[in-house]
What does this fold into?
Amino acid sequence: MQSTITPLRKEVVSKMNGLILDVGVGDDAYFSYLKGKVIAADIDQQVIRNSSGIRVVGDIACLPFKDESFDSVWACAIIEHTKDDTIPELVRVAKKGGQIAILTPNRYSPMHLLMNLWGHPCWWREPHVRLYDYSQLSKYGKVLGEIWRFPVLDKIVRKLPMLGHTLMLYFRK
It folds into this structure.
């Protein structure tokens, strides 16, 4: 599956620098926006073979890195595929003062509630194990929202992230 590079994602990822962990690297879509030395981590060995940067096979639930190893941590569309809350693990590997950006579907996205009613594909029909909502993410830090299929609504969702199609937890440790 190819990543959708939205203005919000590009804006946040472009701010990342230093030693950067791109966990759940997927299709490597954000590599060119990251400004620093990138460690690409994924549990899938085939995905890692095709990624840029220094490649590491690892599980997001138990990353093979020491505490406070990274200046920036980027996790795009990965935490919803794990049974356990993996946010504390991403925080663990970030340095004090380091940036952490985690993108995930919004469990209570109004758009997906409507899509579900109309019988269209939505989060609940995709292979997600654990879905997050605004309140679960906001206990860690600032949450941003986006609607990438309806950019005209993006300004509203930036102010009211709980209405977003996807949510981005973005903060400094």
Residues 7-14 form the longest helix (8 residues). The chain has a mean pLDDT of 90.
